[in-house]
């Protein structure tokens, strides 16, 4: 039984500053109020409250590793002790914000497989060396072994900065870029009003504001700045991205400002997920996620294996992680004409009804542009249906279930059959009539299930039976 | 190669359970509609009302029968197999070794009818098996049986 350990003393610098920042509005109010009301300068003591809180947080937070458990205690008035059994640890994450890095500290996050916050243990503020030792200590006794520094790690992947060209093709990259652009624009309108006197400019032009100037300018900003910011965001997040394999675990580091080290237990990697959203796919790229049992999407980023990168790189890493290239490369079994027909009906149905609605409206006297939405929707729906039909496919080989579907967000999911913990066959009346069913393999990680949509019923049953012998077999006719 | 249906049907009283629940939903919907009609009349043509009435009647009278025809369950030494739904049918199979918890629940209406629901969960959030409309005594026996069987299997079920 070891003693309670404190966080690093240097956190005395971080915690009070963080508390001061958190209490900033209250403090400003206090100072302003105190100065205007006159009298002795007691109000300056208000600053001490957050500092004392920070100090208390340091004094009341402790952790210990004893036997097969990790315990974290915190809180002064309402004291809480979090206890986690070491053999339930799935991932260990070391995250260092710039402030932490300045002081040589890091935050250790221990993931235990529960989706909510209750299950994760955060140790905010350990010296990086001690954190790595703790990780080694935690992982040695669990199914994950600590990365052995003496053995040369098998580098599966190192980021090539040129891959940042894929960033503007992803929705996250675009959102990042647009967000940054919004902040910039807000700043620039403030500056613009003060310095350039835009209103005066408009007045000088003696008329309405020069739209012919403003519209192309904004368009140019959107076209140039958004991708640039997306690229910058990609590089900041994924700088020096390195994936190493030190059996039996995967070790991943990344980040320019905030660095992050993630260790995944190999035994917990149930499969991988090649994600190819339309934009990324057209650009020849893809992303790779790991399906990790006990880590769901809530624990953000923990399951990313390869950030947007060339498809060949992604496939290579996928094969390395799975231990076999076959599921990545195999030609998938198509689902047949009935499934293809269903893709077309489901995509074209709404578009055609929009068109018919437009025609009816025009006949009833609406202006002709009422036809436009329908006329636009039909070809788009057609393209979507064709792409979806092409994507649809599945395979079962080398103890992996492979399923691919979708168009705008196409994914090829590859799940080890040993990690399938149940089957669901879902079919609506329409599907039953077409002899199709949606086969779902449930699993304890990632998106919780791998879905094979609209597969012929016989084939679905055969796949399920072959994947886990003896389970479905007893319910066959 | 095709899947047969699970062996056991749920209690015939389950039809009443579903009908009463559907009726309660319909009454709540009608109340909302009545309030809307009072505040600002919708001025719907008469045939829309007829259509709404027919849909509700079907939902209360026909759908419970349909559900009863679909709902089935089976427990073997190595697996639990359920079939639920009506328009969309859902068949779920979970190996005994992957069962994590066995839940027993009785809603207000279900208690009135002496029925209960047994829910079997696995480590996957997408993988719970629900058997609704079991006779309460049968449900309790099933829970005991499942708990014993799931206990007997090694492993942490993930």
Describe the model.
The complex is a heterodimer of chains A (477) and B (158). By secondary structure, chain A is an alpha+beta fold. Helix content of chain A is 42%, strand content 26%. In chain A, the strands form 4 sheets. In chain A, strands 7-6-5-11-10-9-8 form a 7-stranded antiparallel β-sheet. In chain A, strands 14-13-12-17-16-15 form a 6-stranded antiparallel β-sheet, with helices on both faces. Chain A is globular. Chain B has 158 residues and is α+β, with helices and mostly antiparallel strands. In chain B, the strands form 2 sheets. A 4-stranded antiparallel β-sheet of chain B has the order 1-2-3-4. The two termini of chain B are 29 Å apart. Chains A and B meet through strand 18 and helix 15 of A and strand 3 and strand 4 of B.
Query: How much is the average pLDDT of chain A?
Result: 82
What's the SSE pattern of chain B? EHHHEEEEHEEH
- Number of domain units of chain B: 2
Quaternary assembly = heterodimer
CATH architecture of the largest domain in chain B: Roll
Total beta strand runs of chain A: 20
Q: Helix segment count of chain B?
A: 5
Radius of gyration of chain B from CA coordinates:
19 Å
How does the SSE layout of this entry go?
The complex is a heterodimer of chains A (477) and B (158).
Chain A: E1 5-6, H1 11-22, H2 24-37, H3 48-60, E2 62-66, E3 69-74, E4 80-85, E5 91-96, H4 98-102, E6 105-111, E7 121-127, H5 128-140, E8 154-158, H6 171-196, H7 198-204, H8 211-238, E9 242-246, E10 249-254, E11 259-265, E12 269-277, H9 278-282, E13 285-292, E14 304-310, H10 311-322, H11 326-329, H12 337-363, H13 372-391, E15 393-397, E16 400-405, E17 409-416, E18 422-427, H14 429-433, E19 436-442, E20 449-456, H15 457-467
Antiparallel strand pairs in A: 1-2, 2-3, 3-4, 5-6, 5-11, 6-7, 8-9, 9-10, 10-11, 12-13, 12-17, 13-14, 15-16, 16-17, 18-19, 19-20
Helix pairs in contact in A: 1-3, 6-7, 6-8, 12-13
Chain B: E1 8-9, H1 14-39, H2 46-61, H3 63-70, E2 72-75, E3 79-85, E4 89-95, E5 99-105, H4 108-112, E6 115-122, E7 129-135, H5 136-151
Antiparallel strand pairs in B: 1-2, 2-3, 3-4, 5-6, 6-7
Helix pairs in contact in B: 1-2, 1-3
